[in-house]
Structure formats: C-alpha cells, structure tokens
Amino acid sequence: MDVLGYLRLVRRHWWIVLVTVMLGLGTAALVTVRTAPRYEASVTFFVTTPSQGVTDAYQGSLFLQQRVKSYGDLLTSDRLAQSVVADAPLGLTADQVRSRIHTTATAGTVLLQATITDTDQTRALKTTETLATKFTDLVRKVETPPDGKAPPIKIEVVSGPRVTSNPVSPQPTRNLVLGGLLGLLLGVGLAVLRGVADVRMRDGAGLQRVTGSPLLGEIPYETGARSAPLIVGDAATSARAEAVRKLRTNLRFVDVHEPARVIAVTSALQGEGKTTMACNTAIALAEAGWRVLLIDADLRRPKVADYLGLDGGVGLTDVLVGDVQVGDVVQRWGEKSLLVLPSGATPPNPSELLGSKSMADLLVALRDSADIVVIDTAPLLAVTDGVVVAVQADGALLVTQQGRTSRSQVAAAAHALSSVSVRLLGCVLNMAKVAKSDAYQYEAYKVVVPPAAPSVPADRAGTRRGAKAVGDRTQELTRLSR
Question: Where is the AAA domain (predicted)?
Fold first, then answer.
C-alpha cells in the first residue's frame, strides 16, 4: 500500500485519531493537575589549587578536572547526606536528601554545580545552604594533609545558593504538547491497523480486484432510499438515479459482441440491495425504450411485488407448476415498457423448481418476447437458488454493499458463479460513499424539471401519427399479458 492509501485509511478512521488525541490531552492535563509543583535550588562550586600545591599549570588543570569528578560523587555520598540531616532538621532522611541531589560538572572546567529538587521551596533552599556548608567542610577535612599543612585543593562557592521562584515542574504546555503528539501517533497507528485489518469491501477498486470483473456502477448512499427505493418521482433526479443510468449504459455495452439479454441480479448476502438494484435497473432500461421483463425468482423471500406495488400472490411458481399461463400473470407496471412477473406462492422446493426444465423452457420463451429480461435471484452464499438461475441466464450482475460484505464473502460468491461457468457481467458497489466534490458536480449540473411545461402547438396530422405509434407500441408490449 502506498502513502496515499495509508492517508485514506487515516481519513476513513478520523474519529479514532480524534479520540486518541483527546485522550492524550486529557491524560496530560490530569497528570499536570495531580503532580505537585517542584522547585530547584542550586549552588556552584569552584575548585582551585593554591600556588604552592602544583606548579605546572597544565598538570594542575588536569589534576583539578579529575578531582571535580570525584567531588561530584562525594556530593551524593551517604556521609554527606547524613551530615546534612544531622545539622538541620529538614524532615527528610539521608536517603531522601541523597535522592534529591543532582550534580553537574561542566566539561573542560573546574566548576561543579549541585541542584536539589523539592516540593517545598523553603526546604529546597535550606537543604542547599546546608549542603554547601557541609560539602566545603568535608572537602577541607579530606584534603588536609596529616602534617597539618594547607590542603592542595580549595573549594569556593561562586554562585548561590538560590531557589527558583516558579516551579520547574510540572510544565503544562510541554505536557499538553507531548500528550497531544503521543495521542496523534497512537491514533494514526490504530487507524492504519484497523484499516489494514478491515476485511470488509470498502471501495470499487477492491471489489473489481476481488471479483475479477469490471465495475459497472457505484450507487451512492441516500438517506431517503429506504422509504423510497425506486428511482421514480422526485428520486428520478437524484444522484442515485443518475448512477443507475450509468449502470444501464455500462451494462448494455459491457460486451457489444455478445450482449446479455437475460441478466440475473444477485449478491453474496441478504440485505445488500439486489432486489432494489434489479427493480431500478429494469426501470432505467424501460425508460430508454427497451422492452423489459422483470422476474422475481427469489422464491424464498420475494420483494419485487412489494416494491412495485403489485399483486404477488400468483406468479412464477404457479407458471412453473403448470397452474397458469405466463401471459395471465404478467403485470404491467406504470406507463413504461416494463412488465413484471412476480414470484407467486412460496414452494417447498425452490431450488428444484428453478432448476427444472419448465424454468429453462420459460426463459427461452420470454427471451423472444422482450428485449431484456432482468431476474432477481436469491443470495449466492445463503442458498443455491441464485446459482441455479444464473446458469440459465446470459450473465450475472453481482451487487455488493459497501462496508457490509467481507472480501472473502465476495470472493466466495464470485467463485460460486465461476465454478459453474456463469458469465459474470460485472459488479456493482451499492450504498457507496461519494465524495462531496462529485455530489456537488451532479447537483450543479442536474436537470430541473419545471412544474408546468408550456404546451407546444402541433398539427393534427402529426398528433394522430404519434398516437398511432404509441398505440402500436403498447399492443406489442402487452402481448404477454393478453
């Protein structure tokens, strides 16, 4: 995956980053509030050698630098800490005093700094003053020769003791910045990890790659689609309706040398919108002037009649068992050239009925009666009905809902079709999230139908010719229902 891919994962899971950043800031703020203020008191010592101790300046400098390192260890020794506690009652033990002392020896110099950190500002200063006094006394005692001569090393306080007026910790700005950065890094990592571990189908490119078939359409998600699933009325000018029309165009030209006239619409799982897709595809084809027959072959859970507002009590099942003729149960829907064959009664053996010779003969007869036959079938992974119907069609259209179906389920559905040599015409990503820029482009360019179009005068002869043509077309389309 390239950098843009990782950025898309972070953008998709932006809420994870936001939550971790807020947690980081909250944790930093809590730590800052609960941490007691700490003050620093410091004192700086200058280590020197009297002229009678070491005569060579260079050797004396090296000698003093080595001694400074030793004095740094002496400042944190148990002996000096016990001496400080014994001299001044600070309410601290020797170990507590020693843990508060930090020494710094500046490289290349003979300066030694001792810093004491404490939550009590006054105690920090008092401890530093006592430490400076006891340290100089201790050095003088240690360095004095047994014969009582002057010591070769002299310690002088050149700075301090002084204590900071403001606490050195906690530092709210630094803590908040660090907390925010750590939260940001954690959020980005979790977002990328979640995106990489997410096995659900998220985009059209992934769907095309998994199925190995062309992506014929991406149907955008609309909140009003559940209450008004069909692309009629106000929904006819929506972005969803335009996406279905693009699907219609791609479906008709997916293979110009071997066009599919009988199309099975299916999905991997239930609830991915295959029935809605079958109905809207049939409506879009009928709008383009094709003679379309929509068949509800999902005999277990039929929905086509409910969506179209038709009577589904008698239909395909009754035709296959020989109770009625197909022409008696085909229904016209709306004013378009769309005929519908509902599912009829629910049979006890849907798979055997759909795979029977009666079904094969019926499809052969219907192929000659319509330009395009659209068949709504059952989900592929639930039952075998969808595969049985797809085998008898010219090809199948696989519908997948974005963010619901996993890649393995889509691959299993495509394999179920390819294993019986079903021609997969293409795939459709349903309920897809469309970029705001794309949605804006469509809204800016869509056709707005005026409430009342002005009438255009026409000669009576032309009107009579148009009415006759419409009448002939109607008779041809209703031949099945007579």
Answer: 261-404
